[in-house]
C-alpha cells in the first residue's frame, strides 16, 4: 500500500496547510461570521461544533478527499462485515455486533454471531436480575450488596467510566468497587469496606492470564475462603473471559461464567459481558440503552455521507491537527464531573489503538500517527493546566464535552459550567490582543511604562483549535453514542495512517520483563543483571521485614 504521504490528496493538504498556518481564527471568523452554520453538525442529538478548528471549507473538502482515496468507506464496510481487518492477529473486529440492536445477521466463518450475542445478553440479564432480585445469593444465603470487579485496562476502564458517568442510574442496593492495580492498595481498601457474605467478585479478563487480575483475584479468593470456608468461592465468584480452561482452573461454576470472543478487542469490550459489572450496578435495561446509543452511532458511521459523518469529521480534523498543524496532543475536557474518567478511558481506546509506528504491511511510517490524549473535567482543569494551554508553547488541540442539562439537581451550576466551557473555547480561539491588554490596563490608570512591561506577559495568542460536543443530558443512550463516536474516530484515523488499530504488541515486552523480574525483586541477592544491581540493592536495604 502506498504511504499516505505519497497520495496527491496528502500533498494537496500539505500545500493548503502552508497557506492556512499563518491564518488566525480571528481572521477566519472575521471573513465568515456564519462559521457555526458552516462548521457544525447535529446528529443523534449531539451537536458537534468545529467552527473553532483552523479550517476552511477547502480544508474539509481536501480532508474528505484524502479519506476517500484511502478507501475509508470500504474499510468501514469491511469492519462491519467481519472481514479480518486485524491482520496481525488474523481477527475480525466486530464489537459493533455486540450492540447490533437491529439484529440483522452478522456472519463470521459461516456462523451468524447474533445468536451467540443475544444468548449472552439473555444470560447477563438472568444473572443481573437474579442478583438484584435476591434469587442469586452468597454462601450463607444472604443477598449481595457489594460487587467487586477485578480487571484491568479494557476489563476495568470502561466499567469505571460508565458507572461513574451514569451514577444517577445506579441500583441503590448495590455498591460497585473496581480493583485493577497490581500494588494491592485498591484490593486491601475494598476488602476493609465489604462484608464477605454479601460480596460478589467478578473476575473480568479476556485472556484470564493478566498478572494484575490473577494476583488480585487469587487474594480475593483466599479472603473469601478465610471468611466463609472452602466451598464459598463458587457462590461468590463470577468470571468473564474467552479462556474456559483458565476459568475451570479457577473453579468458576458454569452458571457464573460469561464468555466473550476473540473478535472483540479488550478496549472495545465494554459492550460484551465485560459490561456485566456495569449491568450489575445500573441494571440490564440501562446497559441495553447504552448498546442502543452505540448502535445508533454505528448506523450513522456506516451510512451517513462523509460530509455529515461525525466520527469521520472528528477523525479527519484530528489528522489535520496532528499531521498538518503539528498538534502533539489532544486534551479531552468534559464539563460534567460525572465524566471524570472519560479521559482515562479514551486514553486506552485511542493510544493503545493508534500508538503504532508501522503500517499494515510492516513498513515504518514517515509521518506522525496517534497523538497523546489526556484530560480532566472542567472547570477543575482550568485551575491546573489551562495556563499552559493559554500561554505555553505546547501544541495541544482540545475537545470540550458538555451536557446542557445538569447531571446534578443544581441546574444553575451546570449553567456556570457551560459558561466556563464556552468562555474557554472562545479564549483559546481568539486570545487577547495587545490592543485589548493595553486598553484593559489603561482603564486602570496604569503608567505607560508598566503597561509596556506587562503586555508580553498578558497576551493570549489564541488560535488554539477546539471542538465542542454538546448534548441535552448525560444518560445511557448518550453515553453509548459518545463512546462509539470516539471508537469510530480512532478507526477513521487508523485507516488514513494505514495502521492496525486493533492489536497492541507494544504492551507485551514490559509484561514479560515484569514476569522475569518478579523473583529477583523478592530476592535481590539473586540478581545477575548489572544494569539493575543498584536499584535492587536499595530495595533489599530498604524493605522492611
Ligand atoms: O494492557 C494490555 C491489555 O492486553 C489490554 O489491551 C487489555 O484491555 C488489558 O491488557 C487486560 O487484558 P485482559 O482483559 O485479557 O485481562
Structural notes for this entry:
- The strands form three sheets. The chain has a six-stranded mixed β-sheet, sandwiched between helices. The chain has a five-stranded parallel β-sheet with strand order 6-5-7-8-9, with helices on both faces.
- The relative contact order is 0.13.
- Helix 1 runs antiparallel to helix 4 (57-69) and helix 13 crosses helix 14.
- The chain is built from 23 helices and 13 strands.
- The chain is globular, with a radius of gyration of 26 Å.
- The chain has helices at residues 8-20, 25-31, 35-38, 57-69, 72-80, 95-98, 113-133, 157-165, 185-193, 211-228, 233-236, 244-249, 276-282, 284-303, 310-324, 342-354, 386-391, 411-430, 434-443, 448-458, 476-497, 508-522, 533-542, and strands at residues 40-43, 46-49, 107-108, 111-112, 146-150, 175-179, 199-204, 237-241, 257-259, 329-334, 372-375, 396-403, 466-471.
- It folds into three domains: 15-81 and 304-502, Rossmann fold (3-Layer(aba) Sandwich); 97-288, Rossmann fold, CATH 3.40.50.10490; 509-544.
- It starts with 7 loop residues before the first helix and ends with a helix.
- The model has no long low-confidence stretch (mean pLDDT 97).
- With 545 residues, it is α/β, with parallel strands linked by helices.
- The protein binds 6-O-phosphono-beta-D-fructofuranose.
- 6-O-phosphono-beta-D-fructofuranose binds at residues 152-155, 205-207, 210, 213, 266-267, 352, 504, 507.
Amino acid at each position: 500500500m502506498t504511504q499516505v504521504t505519497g497520495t496527491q490528496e496528502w500533498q494537496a493538504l500539505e500545500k493548503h496547510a502552508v497557506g492556512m498556518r499563518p491564518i488566525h481564527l480571528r481572521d477566519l471568523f472575521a471573513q465568515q461570521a456564519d462559521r457555526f452554520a458552516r462548521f457544525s453538525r447535529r446528529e443523534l442529538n449531539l451537536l458537534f461544533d468545529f467552527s473553532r478548528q483552523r479550517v476552511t471549507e477547502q480544508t474539509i473538502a481536501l480532508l474528505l478527499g484524502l479519506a476517500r482515496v484511502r478507501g475509508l468507506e470500504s474499510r468501514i464496510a469491511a469492519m462491519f462485515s467481519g472481514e479480518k481487518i486485524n491482520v496481525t492477529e488474523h481477527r475480525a473486529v466486530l464489537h459493533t455486533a455486540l450492540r447490533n440492536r437491529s439484529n440483522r445477521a452478522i456472519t463470521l466463518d459461516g456462523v451468524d454471531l447474533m445468536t451467540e450475542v443475544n444468548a449472552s445478553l439473555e444470560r447477563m440479564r438472568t444473572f443481573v436480575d437474579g442478583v438484584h432480585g435476591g434469587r442469586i445469593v452468597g454462601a450463607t444465603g444472604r443477598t449481595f450488596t457489594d460487587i467487586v470487579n477485578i480487571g484491568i485496562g479494557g476489563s476495568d476502564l470502561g466499567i469505571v467510566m460508565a458507572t461513574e458517568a451514569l451514577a444517577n442510574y445506579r441500583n441503590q442496593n448495590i455498591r460497585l468497587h473496581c480493583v485493577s492495580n497490581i500494588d494491592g492498595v485498591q484490593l486491601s481498601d475494598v476488602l476493609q469496606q465489604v462484608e464477605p457474605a454479601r460480596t460478589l467478585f467478578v473476575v473480568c479478563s479476556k485472556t484470564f492470564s493478566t498478572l494484575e487480575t490473577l494476583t488480585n483475584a487469587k487474594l480475593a479468593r483466599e479472603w473469601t475462603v478465610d471468611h466463609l470456608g472452602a466451598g464459598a468461592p463458587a457462590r461468590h465468584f463470577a468470571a468473564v473471559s474467552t479462556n474456559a480452561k483458565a476459568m475451570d482452573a479457577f473453579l468458576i461454576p458454569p452458571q457464573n461464567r460469561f464468555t466473550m470472543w476473540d473478535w472483540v478487542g479488550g478496549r472495545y469490550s465494554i459492550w460484551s459481558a465485560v459490561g456485566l459489572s456495569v449491568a450489575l450496578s445500573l441494571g440490564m435495561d440501562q446497559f441495553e440503552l447504552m448498546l442502543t446509543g452505540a448502535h445508533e452511532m454505528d448506523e450513522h458511521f456506516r451510512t451517513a455521507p462523509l460530509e455529515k459523518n461525525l466520527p469521520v469529521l472528528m477523525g479527519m480534523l484530528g489528522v489535520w491537527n496532528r499531521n498538518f498543524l503539528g498538534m502533539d496532543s489532544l486534551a479531552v475536557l468534559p464539563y460534567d464531573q460525572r465524566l471524570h474518567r472519560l479521559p482515562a478511558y479514551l486514553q486506552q481506546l485511542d493510544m493503545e489503538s493508534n500508538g503504532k509506528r508501522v503500517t499494515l504491511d510492516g513498513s515504518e511510517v514517515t509521518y506522525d500517527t496517534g497523538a497523546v490524549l489526556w484530560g480532566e473535567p472542567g472547570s477543575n482543569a482550568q485551575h491546573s493546566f489551562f495556563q499552559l494551554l493559554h500561554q505555553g508553547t505546547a501544541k495541544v488541540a482540545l475537545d470540550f464535552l458538555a451536557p446542557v442539562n445538569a447531571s446534578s439537581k443544581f441546574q444553575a451550576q451546570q449553567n456556570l459550567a457551560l459558561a466556563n466551557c464556552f468562555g474557554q473555547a472562545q479564549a483559546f480561539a481568539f486570545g487577547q490582543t495587545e490592543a485589548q491588554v493595553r486598553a484593559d490596563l489603561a482603564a486602570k490608570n496604569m503608567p505607560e511604562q508598566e503597561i509596556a512591561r506587562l503586555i508580553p506577559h498578558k497576551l493570549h495568542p489564541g488560535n488554539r483549535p477546539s471542538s465542542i460536543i454538546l448534548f441535552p443530558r448525560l444518560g445511557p443512550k448518550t453515553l453509548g453514542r459518545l463512546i462509539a463516536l470516539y471508537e469510530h474516530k480512532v478507526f477513521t484515523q487508523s485507516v488514513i495512517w494505514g495502521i492496525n488499530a486493533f492489536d497492541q504488541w507494544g504492551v507485551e515486552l514490559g509484561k514479560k520483563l515484569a514476569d522475569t523480574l518478579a523473583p529477583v525483586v523478592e530476592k535481590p541477592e539473586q540478581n545477575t543483571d548489572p544494569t539493575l544491581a543498584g536499584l535492587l540493592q536499595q530495595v533489599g536495604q530498604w524493605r522492611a521485614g
